[in-house]
Design brief:
Layout lengths: L10 E4 L3 E4 L3 H8 L1 H4 L21 H21 L6 H12 L22 H15 L5 H7 L6 H7 L5 H14 L8 H6 L1 E4 L2 E5 L3 H19 L2 H22 L8 H8 L14 H9 L4 H11 L5 H11 L5 E5 L5 H15 L11 E7 L10 E3 L5 E3 H4 L5 H5 L2 E8 L1 H4 L1
Parallel strand pairs: 4-7
Antiparallel strand pairs: 1-2, 3-4, 5-9, 6-9, 7-8
Length: 419
């Protein structure tokens, strides 16, 4: 158990938003909890700092920023006549505070890497349920909002939608720390324009230009930062490193690892566990997962450089010393013949078994769309009550372009072959 502080009136100085007030004792106690403090040790953008050196900010900072924006949104929506009770305000703030608590080491980089088919949303949900028991039911309404079963639909939209407080914070924050000015958005302006119409979030018509800028900024940040080809190279190097470690562990080979990482290396979990939150296996999973962070991976990788397995040793050395894969992108799949030729070169160059060349030569694809028409739309409301979708209301945005999935294929292989 953690020790609770008596002084719960805290102000945090955030470089992105300025001073952030902690809005209540429950929020303070959740922030102080070890499971939330773990987010200080998880980088918001995974390995993006390998490309943008300033991008070392954490999930902890992002969560606090999202809480700050949620407070602004609640105030604006209340000022426009929509009732949000104090209990609801606390619950939706808890939901946004804990929305990322299920992220593992390096955030999205190792998504589903430790437990097959389990993403961070499932883990966030299970961790929140465990916290609700510990806090004697005080998170029940927050869980209802998080799971989208609370009657007021717009509260869930503030936590998760195409215009939620999560996105408004991470775009502004990631732009700030990477130095990529194309991602700068007017989050304050957007929040001031929010309204609730028929129990759904909408934006006043005079805020349409801020929404246009928001969507364009999101598109640019995805291709310039989140899906930057060198970032992909770094992240897939880490993915391959962990896959090799888990393969060796499955054979019974002994690997140095911190206790929490060792648990995930040497254990497999029941099929369908993601749908069964009452499964007893969750107790040990959560106990170990809430101790797992970036440091577990880094420490282990440094030690594995000297492991007798040549493949693991090479991957770890490349990762620790930032010797990234050569990466090529194109709009169509790479030919299997090309991949096969590169694997033969790797086999000869490094004197590896052909089966092990898959860790050094591989092709995957990435996809992104700026505005998903399958999700809840961003609605623009006019003074006469007319409501239009942003793509219809805007005179510069093209729905076909915004909603179209852009898929790119990439091929990775060691730089030595490129020479």
């Amino acid at each position: 158990m953690y020790r609770q502080s008596r002084n719960k009136r805290k102000i945090i100085n955030d470089p992105v938003h300025g001073f952030i007030n902690i809005p209540g004792e429950l929020i303070f106690d959740l922030i102080e909890h070890p499971w939330f403090q773990r987010l200080r040790r998880i980088k918001q953008l995974g390995l993006t700092h390998f490309v943008y050196p300033g991008a070392t900010h954490t999930r902890f900072q992002h969560a606090l920023g999202a809480v700050h924006l949620m407070g602004q949104a609640i105030g604006i929506i209340r000022s426009k006549g929509m009732e949000i009770t104090d209990e609801e305000a606390e619950a939706v703030t808890v939901a946004i505070l804990l929305h990322d608590i299920g992220h593992g080491p390096f955030s999205h980089t190792l998504e589903s890497g430790f437990i097959e088919n389990i993403n961070h949303e499932v883990l966030s949900s299970v961790i929140m349920e465990k916290l609700n028991v510990e806090f004697k039911g005080k998170l029940s309404m927050a869980l209802d909002i998080f799971h989208n079963v609370y009657p007021k639909k717009f509260l869930r939209q503030l936590v998760s939608s195409q215009l939620d407080m999560d996105r408004l914070d991470y775009l502004k924050r990631d732009s700030f720390y990477t130095g990529v000015t194309e991602g700068v958005i007017g989050s304050d302006r957007i929040i001031k324009m929010l309204e609730v119409v028929d129990d759904e979030l909408a934006v006043e018509a005079k805020g349409i230009y801020s929404i246009e800028k928001f969507l364009i900024a999101r598109r640019l940040m995805y291709w310039q930062v989140y899906l930057h080809k060198s970032v992909l190279s770094a992240e897939y190097l880490l993915v391959m490193l962990l896959r090799r470690a888990m393969e060796l562990a499955s054979r019974g080979e002994k690997l140095f690892a911190t206790p929490s990482l060792e648990f995930f290396l040497y254990n497999r979990f029941p099929e369908g566990i993601e749908k069964d939150h009452l499964n007893p296996a969750w107790e040990s999973i959560i106990r170990n997962f809430t101790l797992l962070d970036d440091d577990d991976i880094l420490v282990s990788a440094k030690v594995w450089i000297n492991h007798s397995d040549k493949v693991l040793s090479m991957l770890c050395s490349d990762f620790v010393n930032r010797n990234l894969y050569k990466i090529q992108l194109q709009n169509y799949p790479f030919e299997e013949e090309r991949i096969g030729e590169l694997r033969k070169e790797v086999q000869a160059f490094y004197k590896l078994d052909m089966a092990d060349t898959k860790y050094f030569v591989f092709s995957e694809s990435i996809a992104n769309n700026t505005y998903s028409t399958a999700d809840e739309r961003i609605k623009i409301v006019y003074r006469d009550g007319t409501i239009k979708d942003i793509a219809e209301a805007s005179d510069i945005l093209n729905l076909a372009v915004l909603s179209k999935e852009v898929r790119k294929y990439f091929l990775c292989y060691p730089k030595e072959l490129a020479r």
